[in-house]
Structures are given as structure tokens and as C-alpha cells.
């Protein structure tokens, strides 16, 4: 398995260029860059600007793993408002094109939300409407994904939607495309069940993994903690990843430190090394 770092492990408004440099500085092989409404990687970024980020990654020996985004949360892909759905759809198509230009093999997509507590003013959507629309929207994006040769990774996130591994599995199978899979987040799964069970049930549908820890007591958003300091049974999770034959990217996604944030990256790198070493040791027994 290969070691990466997620954009959101850096302080807010960090440039993608600094994410690449930070990944190299702390021994991460790959980095997940972020497409946003402003910054150095946006929907309006030129080919030259995107190519410059790709060159920077190559010069630093860092592979661009994927392109992540908050755009499908800022503009709900399953909204009751058709114009908002169209905005989210167009943003996702652009995300696919940018990932292709960066040489990334995947994008992270939140398939809309029924409700979300961390987006101020988010309007709830009926679950059955959300499911029908998400299936239509993601299925409709498969042709663009195939053209870009990029996989759409559906993340299990705190969106009150696709909340069980069985439902996530069945949703992906209903889409039925080799260009759509699971962007599996270990820490997010613990809030609703057992990550190791999600892994076994999703199986080969998993295309990328976010390595995140979570403390079930007190829970809530403050429950996300440094790797190896929460309640995730990483031994069990990685044993299941091994059992399904997953050998891809495992990217740390940690809350950036308020002070001395670079130390947080160093700690995440060391912890992920330990987790992967534990997995390697157990898999060779």
C-alpha cells in the first residue's frame, strides 16, 4: 500500500503548491489536491496553471493521487433546486477534467446530501428523492469519467446518506460502472458502524482509502483525533483491506493543528508509517 496525504490535513486556504511541498517534506509519496471556488486550483484554472502544479509535483517526487472538492457540498448534487444540481454536476465534470490533466486516477465525490451539519444553512432533502437523484447524476457522469479515464470515488461522509455498507455497495452496483467506486473513509465509518465490516462488504469496489481516527466518546465532529489516539482498530481494518486484495493509496486525513501545523503533518506521517508497518508485519505471518 502507498502513503498519501489529503489536502484538508493542511490549514484552511493553504495552496495546492504548498500541499505538494509539504507532502514531499514529510515523506508522503502522494498528495490529494483540492478543486475549490478560489485559490490556485479552481474550475477556472487554465491548462497552463494546472500543468504547473503537475510539474511541481513531478519535481518534488510526489504523485497526485486524486482531486478532492467541497463543491458537491456547497452545491448539493441532489438538491430540490434543479439549477443547484446542474451547478454541482458541471463542477464534477470539471473536476474529472482537471484530474485527467494532473495525471490523477480518481476524484473524490460527495453524492449530495440529505442533511449536513457542518455547512451553514444547508437545506435538508428527502432521502428517497436524494437516492433517486444521486443515482441519476452519478450514472450520468460515467461517460465523462470514462472519457477522462478517471474513477469517481464516492465518499462515505457525514451527509446522512448512504449510511450503511450494504446501501453503499448496492448504490455502486446500481450505477454499474468500472469508473465509479468507493472512496472509503475509515474514521467516518466508525461513527456509524465498524470500518472493517465496511471494507469486507465493499470489497473490490474500494478505489481509494482515507486513513482517519475517531473517538466515539464524546463523539460528534470533535471526535476526530490524531491517528492512533482514537478507537479505530487499524489492525482489523488493514487485515480486511489485505483480505480483499487492496494495495492502493492510503491517505492520511487529519485535523490540522491550530499552532505549529507542520508538526501535525510530521506526526501523521510517522503514525501512518507505523500503521502500514503493522499491516506489513501481520500480513507476512
Structure description:
This protein is an alpha/beta fold and 285 residues long. It is 45% helix and 16% strand. The chain is built from 10 helices and 10 strands. The strands form 2 sheets. The protein has an 8-stranded parallel beta barrel, surrounded by 7 helices. It has a two-stranded antiparallel ribbon with strand order 8-9. The longest helix is centred in the last third of the chain and has 23 residues, at 261-283. It is globular and about 45 Å long. The two termini are 17 Å apart. The model has no long low-confidence stretch (mean pLDDT 96).
Summed up:
With 285 residues, the protein is α/β, with parallel strands linked by helices.
Q: Helical segment tally?
A: 10
Strand order of the largest sheet: 1-2-3-4-5-6-7-10
Shape: globular
Q: What percent of residues are in strands?
A: 15-25%
How confident is the prediction overall: mean pLDDT?
A: 96
Structural class: alpha/beta
Fraction of residues in helix? 40-55%
Which helices and strands, and how do they pair?
Layout: E1 2-6, H1 16-25, E2 30-35, H2 47-59, E3 63-69, H3 71-74, H4 82-102, E4 106-109, H5 127-148, E5 151-155, H6 165-175, E6 180-185, H7 186-190, H8 195-202, E7 206-211, E8 213-214, E9 224-225, H9 234-243, E10 249-252, H10 261-283
Parallel strand pairs: 1-2, 1-10, 2-3, 3-4, 4-5, 5-6, 6-7, 7-10
Antiparallel strand pairs: 8-9
Amino acid at each position: 500500500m502507498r502513503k498519501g496525504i489529503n489536502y484538508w490535513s493542511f490549514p484552511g486556504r493553504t495552496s495546492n503548491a504548498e500541499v505538494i511541498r509539504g507532502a514531499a517534506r514529510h515523506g508522503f509519496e502522494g498528495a490529494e489536491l483540492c478543486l475549490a471556488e478560489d485559490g490556485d486550483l479552481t474550475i477556472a484554472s487554465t491548462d497552463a496553471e494546472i500543468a504547473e502544479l503537475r510539474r511541481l509535483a513531478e519535481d518534488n517526487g510526489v504523485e497526485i493521487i486524486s482531486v478532492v472538492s467541497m463543491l458537491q457540498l456547497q452545491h448539493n448534487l441532489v438538491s430540490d433546486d434543479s439549477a443547484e444540481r446542474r451547478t454541482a454536476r458541471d463542477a464534477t465534470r470539471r473536476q474529472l477534467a482537471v484530474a485527467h490533466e494532473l495525471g490523477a486516477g480518481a476524484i473524490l465525490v460527495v453524492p449530495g446530501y440529505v442533511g449536513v451539519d457542518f455547512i451553514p444553512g444547508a437545506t435538508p432533502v428527502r432521502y428517497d428523492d436524494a437516492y433517486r437523484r444521486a443515482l441519476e447524476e452519478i450514472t450520468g457522469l460515467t461517460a465523462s469519467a470514462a472519457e477522462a479515464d478517471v474513477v469517481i470515488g464516492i465518499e462515505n461522509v457525514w451527509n446522512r446518506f448512504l449510511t450503511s455498507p450494504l446501501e453503499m455497495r448496492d448504490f455502486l452496483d446500481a450505477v454499474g460502472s468500472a469508473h465509479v467506486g468507493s472512496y472509503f473513509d475509515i474514521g467516518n465509518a466508525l461513527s456509524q458502524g465498524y470500518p472493517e465490516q465496511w471494507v469486507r462488504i465493499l470489497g473490490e469496489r474500494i478505489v481509494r482509502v482515507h486513513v482517519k481516527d475517531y473517538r466515539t466518546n464524546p463523539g460528534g465532529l470533535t471526535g476526530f483525533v490524531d491517528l492512533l489516539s482514537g478507537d479505530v482498530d487499524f489492525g482489523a481494518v488493514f487485515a480486511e483491506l489485505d483480505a480483499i486484495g487492496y494495495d492502493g493509496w492510503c491517505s492520511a486525513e487529519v485535523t490540522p493543528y491550530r499552532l505549529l501545523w507542520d508538526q501535525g503533518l510530521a506526526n501523521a506521517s510517522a503514525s501512518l508509517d507505523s500503521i502500514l508497518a503493522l499491516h506489513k508485519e501481520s500480513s507476512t505471518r
